[in-house]
Write a structure and sequence with these properties.
Length: 305
C-alpha cells in the first residue's frame, strides 16, 4: 500500500502511520532498527529498493529524506508512506523537504524514529566530510558513507581518516569483504615465504582499490603499489592482486565474476568472486552495530597524513 501525503507535517505522517498499523495489522514491534537515508530526489527509488531488499534480513523502519534547500517559496513537506507489499519487510516513509524544512534533517525526522532502537544513517551519494558531526550523524549508532560516489574518492578517504569516529563505515570498504576473505586464505599457499611487496590493479575511480592497498600496508608492513591499468587497458573496480614473495609470485586476477589464481610452481585454480551489490553491502553493515576496528585501523593507518 502506498499513501501520498502532499503538503503535510511530521505529526500528520506519524498519525497516519499509526492508523495504517491499526487498520492493516502492520506492526513496528518487529523492527530491529531505524534506517535513515539522506539522498537527492532522483535516487529515491533506487535507495528504497535497496532498503526494502536489505530489510528482509534486518526488519527496519526506513526513512528516506530527500531535501532541496534552495527552492523559492514557502517551506513544504511532501510525504509518502509505503507498507505491506510495497515495503518489503519494512515500513518506508519518504520525505521530500523543500526550503527551510530541509535545513535541519535531525529535527525533521525526530518524531518518526523508533524508540529504543539503533539508528543507521546512510548517505548513498553526497556524503559529509565528518559523518559523526553531520546533523543526522549526531543521532546515529552507525554512519554509512560511499566514497566511490564522491568527486575525488581518494581525497574523501583522507577526510574520513582525519574525522573518523567509532560507528563510521564506508561502502567502498564493505565491497572488499570477499576480496579480503579470499586473499587471507591464499596466504596458506605462501607458507613460510616472506612477502616482499604487493601490487593492486585497480581503477582510479575505485576507492576500494586504495583501501585494499592500505590493508596490505597496515597488516603486512610491506611496500604496496596500485597500477591503474592492466596490459595497457583501464580496469573496472579491482582487477587483481599480485603478491611478490621470496621465491615467487602469487596473483589473483578477476575477469567478470571469476578470479584466476596463479602461483609459481603451483597448480592454477579459479574461484567465484562476484561484484557485491549495494544490497549485499547494506545487509552486512546493518548486521553489526559496533565499531569496525579493522576499518578504523586501515583508514587511520593508510590515509592519515
Amino acid at each position: 500500500m502506498i499513501v501520498d501525503m502532499p503538503a503535510t507535517t511530521i505529526s500528520d505522517v506519524s498519525a497516519r502511520l499509526s492508523s495504517l498499523r491499526e487498520e492493516g495489522g502492520v506492526v513496528a514491534l518487529g523492527r530491529v532498527l531505524t534506517l535513515v537515508v539522506q539522498t537527492d530526489f532522483r535516487r529515491i527509488e533506487e535507495v528504497v529498493e535497496a532498503a526494502n531488499a536489505s530489510s528482509r534480513a534486518h526488519p527496519a523502519r526506513v526513512i528516506v529524506l530527500a531535501d532541496e534547500v534552495d527552492v523559492p517559496g514557502e517551506p513544504r513537506l511532501d510525504a509518502q508512506i509505503r507498507v505491506g507489499g510495497d515495503a518489503g519487510a519494512s515500513e518506508v516513509i519518504i520525505l521530500r523537504a523543500y526550503g527551510g524544512l530541509a535545513e535541519s534533517p535531525k529535527g525533521l525526522i525526530g518524531g518518526l524514529l523508533l524508540p529504543d532502537a539503533p539508528i543507521v544513517v546512510w548517505w548513498p551519494n553526497a556524503c559529509p566530510a565528518s559523518p559523526a558531526e553531520a546533523d543526522l550523524g549526531t543521532i546515529a549508532t552507525r554512519r554509512l558513507t560511499d566514497s566511490a560516489n564522491q568527486s575525488d574518492p581518494q581525497a574523501y578517504l583522507k577526510n574520513l581518516a582525519k574525522n573518523y569516529q567509532p560507528g563510521d563505515g564506508d561502502m567502498a570498504w564493505t565491497r572488499l569483504t570477499l576480496w579480503r576473505s579470499q586473499l587471507a586464505s591464499l596466504f596458506d599457499r605462501i607458507e613460510d615465504n616472506t612477502v616482499e611487496s604487493v601490487e593492486i590493479i585497480g581503477s582510479e575511480l575505485s576507492p576500494s582499490a586504495d583501501l585494499l592497498a592500505a590493508w596490505f600496508r597496515v597488516k603486512l608492513g610491506v611496500p604496496t603499489t596500485i597500477s591503474r591499468q592492466h596490459k595497457g587497458k583501464n580496469v573496472l573496480g579491482i582487477g587483481g592482486v599480485k603478491i611478490h614473495y621470496k621465491g615467487g609470485e602469487l596473483k589473483m586476477m578477476r575477469s567478470a565474476e571469476v578470479a584466476k589464481i596463479k602461483q609459481t610452481d603451483k597448480p592454477s585454480a579459479s574461484i567465484l568472486l562476484p561484484r557485491r551489490s549495494i544490497v549485499d553491502c547494506l545487509v552486512e553493515e546493518m548486521r553489526f552495530m559496533g565499531p569496525d576496528e579493522t576499518y578504523a585501523e586501515v583508514l587511520r593507518g593508510g590515509f592519515s597524513d
